[in-house]
């Protein structure tokens, strides 16, 4: 079994739906196709939600009607037979009515998740009706029948596996189509795996069926050595180890959802990143036999807040760090980076929803300083500490950039440091010049 996931741009137009169908058809064997919403749709759904939250119902209705018109046009251009076009109209009417009903009710968190799910539910329905015309051997599965998260919003992997195997056993098709991103929560309500979560769905599904490979099809030819949104002359990386891919995804490489590598890694399932618009290019293979490379790629994660706790009582005191960590645990806030000195500890978080409460509690331990608008720069590769010259190669060019924290040696695959977000683009470009310039020229 192969899992193929196509992101928003890959299903962003009628032409692109056709490209996806060609890729699916040219993939041999049994497959599960996981689709995102058409590009821009989830953003529109977020906008609709925000408008309904503030009771701007009229404005929300304008967007809801516009979305429905867009889908009707897509269905008309995509689907040839009267029969399937009629079915598409029924599907679209049903989803349009879901949004209209929610817009007429008082707003609730439950409704928010239902709104957010419409994009994936519609794209998969339309694609299945189209596949029915070109292939005739595909089945639509509702991810709401098998994807579930627990009370901590973590996937219930055993439940997913059991339910999915039962659902699959009911059909004899070669091609299954399902939604990325959406799931049910512990109360059986509609929920989701957070923005960009379709990658995570694909990996969880791949792990549940013990797939031979998980393919992530997107709008770029695999993982690049640096963030192509901010740096020119980046190039595609041919292979990555699971550890390197996990670090890059977690520290901001948008091509992969932060958690998406973990299920594949735990089950040793290779992940292939491919370009829907250039299927002939190699892409990036993530597997456990990747040849090591000193420095593989760079990524950056924004919206980081650093907290420094300065305490002379910390000097020689055991148990101090435990007390600090307990505060973060109580407030369910995870720490990304940490550095210590004899009298102070600095750590970073990206979720600031509990910052005030955390600060208040930490105040009991010493003097607290909080800095925001920071970015973590992550360098991934085979950075084993006995390799000489790596740190000087990295920091040589950064003489004029203030660096707030450095973390190295935690794993063999990552060196990360903290800078002001306003310096991020310069840092990514300087590092590209210093670490990859020759390779970039070769790749052009
Ligand atoms: P999809 O909608 O297919 O899930 P995303 O927009 O989530 O696609 O991810 C693909 C985008 O990730 C690329 O278009 C690119 O701009 C961005 N990106 C950021 N960092 C990297 C990187 N290191 N390598 C490749 N793409 C990256
Ligand atoms: N449609 C969702 C989003 O835009 C999930 C995804 O595309 O991965 O975040
Ligand atoms: Mg994505």
Describe the protein in words.
The protein is an alpha/beta fold. The protein has 2 domains: 2-219, 3-Layer(aba) Sandwich (Carbamate kinase); 296-443, VC0802-like. Helices cover 41% and strands 20% of the residues. The chain contains 13 helices and 16 strands. It has helices at 14-25, 41-53, 57-78, 82-104, 109-134, 157-169, 198-208, 242-250, 261-266, 320-330, 355-362, 390-395, 424-443; strands at residues 2-6, 31-35, 138-140, 175-179, 182-184, 190-192, 213-218, 239-240, 271-275, 284-286, 297-310, 335-340, 344-349, 367-380, 405-408, 414-420. An 8-stranded mixed sheet has the order 3-4-2-1-7-9-10-8, sandwiched between helices. A 6-stranded antiparallel sheet has the order 12-13-11-14-16-15. Helix 6 links the parallel strand 3 and strand 4. Helix 2 packs antiparallel against helix 3 (57-78). The protein is globular, with a radius of gyration of 24 Å. The model has no long low-confidence stretch (mean pLDDT 94).
